[in-house]
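The aim of this short unit is practical: by the end, you should be able to scan a pair of folded records and say something sensible about each. We start with the first protein, listed as its amino acid sequence and then its structure tokens.
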Amino acid sequence: MRILERIGNHLSTVVFQNIAALITLGLIRVLFGPLGWFHNAHVYQIVDPVLHYLVPILFAYTGGRLIGGQRGGVTAAFVTIAAATGGLQQFSLILPSLIIGPLIGYIIKLVDRLLNGRIPVGFELLLNNTAAAVVASAFSVLFLNYLDPVFIQTVRVIVSGTQYLVDSNLLPLVAFIIEPGKVLFFNNAINHGILEPLGILHTKESGTSIFFLLETNPGPGFGMLLAYYFIRRKQKEGLGNVKSSIIIHALGGIHEVYFPYALRNPLVIVSLLLGGLAGNLCFMLLGAGLVATPSPGSVFLMFVMAPSGMHLPVLAGLLASAFVSFAVAYPILSRQERREAGTDGSGGRHAISVYNGKEEDIRKIIFTCNGGLGSSAFAAAMLRKRTQHLDLELTIEHASIEEVHEDADLVVANPHLLERIKSALPDAEIWSVSSFVDDDLYDQLVNRLKTTLNKEGN
């Protein structure tokens, strides 16, 4: 499971770091494509080169760089071009690039380890880059002569399987995999590592894809959070965190904020399953699809990525999933009303655990999550706002789990990332938190920073 998690996190990070290019591609499609608002074939002609060359090269470069550094990225990009000029030129290299990138990056990493300590002083630049060139040349020849047919057959199988799911009546059932996977923080891996590449392949044939809607639909989480809200209002207790979570989830598109609510009461996950199933079924029956993934999964961005004439089907699926999720979650939560009484108004107490707690000064704080651009970005912005009045030279950043800097004094992460951070940063102070929305987290962080401020005052 841990290996699968790391693979999924790596793939999602690769896609996440190039999401600007994908959103740009989506905007061009929704504005100037055959189904766009202002159809313009002259502008739309850039879509194919971007899909066939730019996006795969970006994916390969990023995947190679994450593992093998700069030379790993450059070498992977070169090999991808070699693959694109061979038999694979008839297909999009989106999926092959997600394999080529980390593979070449890992080879470069092994070569660096082999050469470490064996290169004469002054020849490091020459020999390291020459070794990377040898790897690039060797794998280019391998792809052109031997590996292209393997990838061609693999892509054909994937495309056929994707089309089968779209044409069959089984597609809505993927909610039984997606919704539990999301609350276990596999959301980015599922969306950016699997569904988004499949959606990109599907759009080459149909112009839109339902795969862009399956994970990013905020309806199931919105319905569940709405049920929590009405329960809290009935108890006449604090609603602050629930309100914030609803807004951040539905409008901001940061789905991680509702995961702790679901994990606190696993029975509520049933509402997410049925809500996701209802939404997917509605999308399928109405022929809904987007031109690119809405990342983050915000209602606003869903409508931006919907071409002309597709907004009502998308809205219908979103509302159906929210209604079913709410209808199932509310009676489940109502039965727990007494148990919920006296909590912090967030749908349960959010645990905060501190590891390697020290009295040392804090100069750099990093919030981390799988992709580094969702809940961690929100959390970093929240803490910056809360620390504006403190006279401290303080750096607050957000990063993916793959890119947490070694110079971090304090790292804040979800519990499922704890072991990886401990092994990567054994000397850092680590805070494990179940929710980045919990106000108590920021109160405790501010208090922790005040100890540094008091030391400097003395």
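Turning to the second protein, read its sequence before its tokens, just as you did above.
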Amino acid sequence: MKLAVVGATGMVGEVMLRVLAERNFPIDELLLVASERSVGKELSYKGETYKVIGLQDAVDAAPDIAIFSAGGDTSLEWAPKFAAAGTTVIDNSSAWRMNPNNKLIVPEINANELTAEDKIIANPNCSTIQLVMVLNPLHQKYGLNRVVVSTYQSVSGTGIKAVQQMENESQGIEGDMAYPYKINRNALPHCDVFLDNGYTKEEMKLMTEPKKIMSDDSFNLTATAVRIPTAGGHSEAVNISFNNDFDLEEVRSILTQTPGVVLEDDTANNIYPMPINAHDKDEVFVGRIRRDESMPNTLNLWVVADNLRKGAATNAIQIAEYLVANGLV
């Protein structure tokens, strides 16, 4: 197994290396890949030192799998070159997600769609992954009608520059700005760029990707995405209207039995999901489960996950694990 990590020097790339080691992914040869300015830099994996190589050298090496976290432009240019060399690409950017020719995969939901012919596989948006992990089992039981989601997203979702901006502001230091305004002690209803319809790209991802992952466009979604000054972990307030009525204890039971989902729903003891507790964990946490008393067949809940792990690195590596386990690479 020859594995390439493209974007190895970035925030998600660093987490990928940690998760690969933790899960003991079978690697015979590891290629750490980044842009030209990082070529030659040394990184450590399982106690060994590796030199970062460039993209063309990585293509020429023809790895079995290449996990990309290097941005949409890099993916659009280089993923097809890897695929042409016989490599299966798992891409973290938004470049291929809504392309009808590419699968959009959350392994617990739709890994069985994958075949050996899928050479560029899309990893969903971080906020989408944690959302569908909760929506899918409930949809199977009650039928989704409409979903309203409001996100509270960590600055780590923007990248290292945003994390540094928040840290600088908390210490009263002037520095580079990842956002148009201060993020420390603030909340920005502005994740990604604004589109002509008034929504941001992040909100549109949340509104379109779940339908593709769940292979169902019979329900409606709307979203508001907000950036808050937390260092890691995304949170979501989710309002779900079903076609059929539900029992709250049954909802809790369904979620408890869903692989990859952890129920934290004991308000009498102040137990509910928080990003500080989801840090460095691969599970999706759900709590604050209650009826929406203003609407029939409608549920409110709160969903939290580490956006760099299940929201990015872990989900991509789970896809790679599925490919290997099923002989698809």
